[in-house]
Amino acid sequence: MIVVPCPNCGPRNSSDLRNAGEVAPRPDPETASLTEWRSYLYLRENPAGWVTETWYCRSGCRRYFTIERNTATNEIRESENS
Amino acid sequence: MSSHRLPIRSSELIDRSTSLSFTWNGRAYVGHEGDTIASALAAAGVEVFSRGMKYHRRRGILTANHWDPNLSVQVGDEPNVRAGSRRLVDGMQVSAQNVWPSLRWDLGTANRLVGRFLSVGFYYKTFMRPQFLWHNLYQRILRKFAPGGRVNWKTGTHGEYDKRYAHPDVLVAGGGPAGVAAALSAAEAGASVMLVEQEPELGGHLRWGGPDDLAVLADLRQAVYSTPAIEVLCDSIVTGRYDHNWVAVLQRSHEVAPERLIKARVGSLIVAPGLVERPYVFAGNDIPGVMLAGAVRRLINLWAVKPGSRAVVLSANSEGDAAVLDLESAGVEVVAVLDARAGEDVVEARGRGRVSSVQTGDGRILRADLLVTATGWTAPTSLLNMAGDRPVYDKVAARYFPQALPDNVLATGGIAGDGSTTELTAHGRETGLLAAQRALRLRHDRRAQTPRSPAPESDRPAAIADSRIPLRRSPHPECYRSTTHGLVDYSEDVSSKDLIQAAGEGFDSIELMKRYTTVTMGPGQGKLETVNAAAVLAEAMAVEMADIGTTVWRPPFSPVSLGALAGRIFEPVRRSALQDWHEANGATNLLAGQWVRPDHYGDPMAEASNVRENVGLIDVTPLGKLDLRGPDVANLLDLVYVNRWQKLEVGRVRYGAMVAEDGVVSDDGVTGRLAEDHYLMTTTSSGAGAVWEMLEDWLQTYRPDWEVHVTPVTGGLTSINVAGPRSRELLERLVDNVDLSADAFPYFSVRTGIVAGVADCIIWRIGFTGELSYEVHVPSGHALHVWESLLSNGSDLGVAPFGIEAQRILRLEKGHYIVGQDTDGLSKAPTAGLDGLVRLDKADTIGLPELRAAFERTDLPVLVGLQPDDPTIVPDEACQIVEAGSNQILGRVTSSRMSPTLERSICLAQVDPSLAAAGTSVTVQLVDGRRITATVQEHHAHVDPEGARQRV
């Protein structure tokens, strides 16, 4: 169980939050092809290394925020767009 | 039964004024407070405690502590109790495991005669073929020979297991001199400390040491117990270390719970488990009477038990030398001391049921009933492995040492090196200080990172460098195996010969060898066996120990019972404000997610009929309710629902369905507009939480410029559905300031008014049941009053409560689908019957490209109404719809009930598009294998498809 730093509630057990996954930009639904849309739905980088991901503070302030996490070491650092 | 109890020893743990009665294999014995099961039996002269797993050879005390592989016993209902560490309790019923018919006469010993057939890999090679015999024959017979105790499935003797969360700055794993010293200095530095010791008391090896050791121990204990910042947990063990210093502690003895799992988030973890003494591999090394030096020292000094009368000692270190002195002081005749440092050796122990003679390396045969070996140490590096370290072998000291540890894990004591008690405690103190300093900096950082907590009252503690003087590594001979073969793994009956054979067959990496031979895979998980196994492999491969590596130690460090893992479940149960009333009035409950709610009040069919004929009340509080306010609510609704919302007028409600970004139906419900910028959204009962989180995600992440405030009011409003042809008449008696007439309050409208004197009730007119009905959302504090008023004012109208089952019947008669029951992961909105609802000409809507694409699809299953041709047969839900002449699956029944209104069975079903036309005959396979025919209906609704009843 890792510790995830919520910008409001501070460092919390990850069980207090929900991992909403790797950040994937949503294409414009008006112009996106089905292929582009399905890449957004199903394809992620999933690197063994640094990933920008969204977390939801579901047991605390209920804020969605992003962090950068190294999936190989679970080292965590602030994301620029949190 | 001769007594082997010695005169009083100054270090003994037993309280001789007590007398505890217990039985061993049915015979009565007596021990003292402070005895383990093993020490009490040993004091009474018991020599054989178990039988080997494969060959069923007799086994006695080997290590006399928790890791002793020969001391697993059954205590009452509890199997696999470790008699080497479990303290004796009055009335215990102890028996041997894995023996039949008895420990003394064990038929399993016949395996010895066929021993060569039970060699390594025997099972793999023998029971492979023919495959069908595995289930029918092999497995059944082999199970009779499985080791371990008996589980009593009806056991009810244990209490409730428990869990606890803890956040100490410093956790010390191991309460020997170094660990205790570390805890003390960490506490002095301002850290909160949890000190965890596996044994029932602190002190480690000092406990069985001389007067100087005992004096130091007394001082350390006194200091620890007078330091409030240190929480001492004895008879407890750290079983695992996980990411970000998440540490699992199994607390074995607790006032209330038989076991408690402590989940600790730790600033710094200090690993100080000491060392585990290693057995020596030689012929006969499992005969009772072969013991490790630590075992005889513990037996003599802690429990005043004389371990034998004539001893041979093989010593490679000071522990062996000390054992010689202890044996002499206990009146044991030491026949010979063989010094392994000078090349002396033991070749074989002989005896039946007890050692009778020992053959030495120089060919002497000595008569003795006790052979004591002191051939070195295994560093129990589990917690270091779990922290990412790969300990390295030091040839000079003949054991493994830590290599590179993360900053928040520190090692001290024997695992880090050798030293006198003074040197060990000094190293412990420095380690404790360093650990505390790092933990306090982390605590400061975490506080500073938490905007909602007060700012730290002091500056960040300064970092200090790791200036500890490393403990030295004393030279030790590499003593692993004699010139003969013996057991490496006592629990699994794996010998050095087996390992060499496995290496010869090609299993020549330690990880492969482990899996092939099961060496280190028994209850001890390698504490005694790992290093000897590596040594034998190195010998077989003719390489250095350092080149072999070891298997990776994984959690748990020590067995954890399933009860402790399950513990207490922290799951809330939700109850509506009316649940007490339901239970007082005959409701049979069901659990729906977190909610407990009435399934029925005795007769669901009658409850349903009463709704069709008179008027019924149902508590639908679990229905998700979200209060939405702000100028952009209509934009939000347009985004999250597939239909249009911009033109919903104040006072109107509308049905909406939601899909996920993949176009699959995810939730549905009605939303009403209460005022210009104020809406109330309802969701399915199970989807309430997910919809709320989804709305927040859109508002926070993608549309932060929208002004919408979402408040969940599911529990705050108690929802009562008043349904039936006489519902209007009933409500008119209780509602003030709202005109309920059909013209003033049409279908799919919402009003706010006073019900039974309760203000701010939201009433909307919808019809899940297909009848004229009103859903009344009452502030929960007044809900019981409104519910009881509805009942007492409607007795002449036939009002009665109905439960979930009646509602399911009614909604199925009406053909209303339930998301997640009648839809699934292939239910894209346009093909799930929502093609008329979906609007594609919106600025944006969730899943828009998938909705567009789904309109082009002709291959997705279609939801249809279905009626079995035999009206008395109700196919179970999830029955398959198949092709008549084959097993080709063409759909399934998603909902089915007997309809009290139609007096026939009715269904909803998902079918292949080729079967979706009204009038199509389909074949349904029942659970019992029979096949029946059923006919696809024109509408989902079986009753009143035109909706006339709900629009009156």
Structure description:
The complex is a heterodimer of chains A (82) and B (952). With 82 residues, chain A is mainly beta. Chain A has one helix at residues 34-42, and strands at residues 3-6, 10-13, 18-22, 50-56, 64-70, 76-78. Chain A has a 4-stranded antiparallel β-sheet with strand order 3-4-5-6, with no helix packed on it. In chain A, strands 1-2 form a two-stranded antiparallel sheet. The longest helix of chain A has 9 residues, at 34-42. The radius of gyration of chain A is 14 Å and the shape is globular. The mean pLDDT of chain A is 93. Helix content of chain B is 23%, strand content 26%. A 7-stranded mixed β-sheet of chain B has the order 39-40-41-42-38-32-43, sandwiched between helices. Chain B is α+β, with helices and mostly antiparallel strands. Chain B has 7 domains: 15-115, Ubiquitin-like (UB roll) (Roll), CATH 3.10.20; 162-275 and 381-448, 3-Layer(bba) Sandwich (FAD/NAD(P)-binding domain), CATH 3.50.50; 279-375, 3-Layer(bba) Sandwich (FAD/NAD(P)-binding domain); 480-559, Orthogonal Bundle (Arc Repressor Mutant, subunit A); 571-623 and 716-827, Probable tRNA modification gtpase trme, domain 1 (Gyrase A, domain 2), CATH 3.30.1360.120; 625-713, 2-Layer Sandwich (Alpha-Beta Plaits); 861-952, Elongation Factor Tu (Ef-tu), domain 3, CATH 2.40.30. The chains are: A mainly beta (82), B alpha+beta (952). The A-B interface holds A 1-3, 5, 7-11, 13, 18, 20, 26, 29-30, 32, 34, 37, 40-41, 54, 56, 58, 61-64, 74 and B 242-244, 246, 263, 265, 446-447, 449-453, 661-662, 693, 696-697, 700-702, 844-845, 848-850, 853.
Architecture blueprint of SSEs:
The complex is a heterodimer of chains A (82) and B (952).
Chain A: E1 3-6, E2 10-13, E3 18-22, H1 34-42, E4 50-56, E5 64-70, E6 76-78
Chain B: E1 15-24, E2 27-33, H1 37-43, E3 50-51, E4 58-59, E5 72-75, E6 78-82, E7 93-96, H2 110-113, H3 122-126, H4 132-144, E8 162-166, E9 170-173, H5 177-188, E10 193-196, H6 211-225, E11 230-233, E12 236-242, E13 246-251, E14 260-265, E15 268-271, E16 276-277, E17 290-292, H7 293-303, E18 310-315, H8 318-329, E19 333-339, E20 346-350, E21 357-360, E22 365-367, E23 370-374, E24 377-378, H9 382-386, E25 392-394, E26 399-401, E27 409-411, H10 421-448, E28 487-489, E29 494-495, H11 496-504, H12 510-517, H13 530-541, H14 562-566, H15 579-584, E30 588-592, E31 595-600, H16 604-613, E32 615-619, E33 624-629, H17 633-640, E34 653-659, E35 665-675, E36 678-683, H18 688-702, E37 709-712, E38 717-723, H19 727-732, E39 735-736, E40 750-755, E41 758-765, E42 773-779, H20 783-792, E43 799-801, H21 804-814, H22 848-856, E44 862-868, E45 880-882, E46 889-899, E47 904-911, E48 921-925, E49 931-936
Parallel strand pairs in B: 1-7, 8-14, 9-10, 9-15, 10-11, 15-27, 17-23, 18-19, 18-23, 32-43
Antiparallel strand pairs in B: 1-2, 3-4, 5-6, 5-7, 12-13, 13-14, 16-24, 20-21, 21-22, 25-26, 28-29, 30-31, 32-38, 33-36, 33-37, 34-35, 35-36, 38-42, 39-40, 40-41, 41-42, 44-47, 44-49, 45-46, 45-48, 46-47, 48-49
Helix pairs in contact in B: 5-6, 5-10, 7-8, 11-13, 16-21
